[in-house]
Automatic annotation (TrEMBL):
One of its GO terms (molecular function) is heme binding. This is Cytochrome P450. Pathway: Secondary metabolite biosynthesis. SUPFAM superfamilies: Cytochrome P450 (SSF48264). Its cofactor is heme. PANTHER family: P450, PUTATIVE (EUROFUNG)-RELATED, P450, PUTATIVE (EUROFUNG)-RELATED-RELATED. It is found in: Membrane. InterPro entries: Cyt_P450 (IPR001128), Cyt_P450_CS (IPR017972), Cyt_P450_sf (IPR036396), Cytochrome_P450_fung (IPR050364). It is a single-pass membrane protein. Transmembrane segments: none annotated.
Amino acid sequence: MVLHPRVYVKARDEIERIVGMSNLPTLEHKDSLPYINCIIQELYRYDTNIHLIGLPHHLQSVDEYRNFHIPRGSMIFANIWYVCSRQCVQLYYNAVGTDPERFEDANVDVLSDPRNYVFGFGRRICPGRHFAEDAIWLAITHIVSIFDIEKAYNADGGEITPAVHFRPGLTR
């Protein structure tokens, strides 16, 4: 949020308008805070937790993909990282940038909604995904509600922009 103050201000304004500042958002507010949901979708897209190859799947029947024959029993990996990544300009306009507004349209294509694949899919979908989504939603709404997020200043009064470093894995 400190790197994207416009996003923070818009989220804070939405929470102030719907929930007020004397209460914390609850899960009952989830449908009333659409911009927060857009932020979460953008977080999933921007840095998915299943890096590089996703989870393995075995084909139960013969398949073909772009004229490639894939035999039954083959182990395949969905490249979730690529689909969500900043490189996938086919699905996301301004794929390099952070832009929660890309998810404001209620008719977002199923393929471009990262919630449809960041927790896996098919029989291997994460059984705790709903709990995880609710926990993430509560964490973000509470942080935005409680804290004033802004850059720090050095002794000379200049802004300090934090460095961002990502490491692959389920934890950071």
